[in-house]
Write a structure and sequence with these properties.
35% strand; alpha/beta; two-stranded antiparallel ribbon
Length: 215
């Protein structure tokens, strides 16, 4: 299944519009906050698909029965760009465990690139609900490398992939290799450039959130 936030009118469209707006992007604090807001909205939508159990909560005047999340949730994030989006999920899944993956594009002089993964910090993934967070999914190569790396830490009950903006090419690529994965997207764009950048996209999420880096 694929959930796309901007397919229906909601306040989420405001956050996505500001993420894309080249003038508003100049405020890196607001860019990070908008990624966080999109993460909160996607976390809420994912929560509707989880397992719940009834719990009795004691109030000052009596007992209130309510349903709380039963599943064990692990939030996995691709560094560094995924951190603000991760925070949005963590605001809602505040009892979750967390995994962090250092994966990035290593560009070659001929214009091609490969995905390099240098580091994983991860809890046991067996039988958990794994939410893998990356603000931009272009070709799907980073997600594929990350999923292969996380395979060593156990088998989740379900894998969810969350992104603020994704390209159809990347989503289709992952679906062919991992048909069981569920996607949760802010927006889905159709075009990739020759250098594998999403159009219209929003630019380099990591640079916009944290400043430019040396290649």
């Amino acid at each position: 299944m694929t959930f796309i936030l901007n397919q229906n009118p909601s306040i989420g469209n405001t956050f996505l519009a500001e993420l894309r707006d080249s003038e508003i992007q100049k405020d890196s604090m607001r860019f990070r906050r908008n990624l966080e807001r999109v993460g909160e909205l996607l976390a809420y939508e994912i929560s509707k698909t989880l397992q719940f159990h009834e719990v009795a909560v004691e109030t000052p005047l009596g007992i209130a029965n309510t349903n709380l999340v039963k599943d064990r949730v692990v939030l996995g994030t691709i560094l560094r760009a995924g951190l603000p989006l991760h925070q949005g999920f963590l605001n809602y899944f505040d009892k979750s465990e967390n995994a962090f993956v250092s994966a990035y594009r290593m560009h070659h002089k001929d214009g091609t690139f490969e995905i390099k993964m240098e580091y994983i910090s991860c809890p046991d993934l067996n039988d958990c609900q794994l939410i893998l967070i990356d603000p931009m999914i272009a070709t799907g190569a980073s997600i594929e490398v990350t999923l292969k790396g996380l395979h060593n830490y156990g088998k989740p009950a379900q894998i969810h992939i969350a992104a603020a903006v994704a390209a159809s090419y990347g989503i289709d690529y992952i679906k062919r290799r991992y048909p069981e994965v569920k996607f949760w997207l802010g927006a889905l764009d159709e075009e990739l450039t020759a250098k594998s950048y999403i159009v219209p996209g929003l630019g380099d999420a990591g640079d916009l959130a944290f400043g430019p880096k040396l290649q």
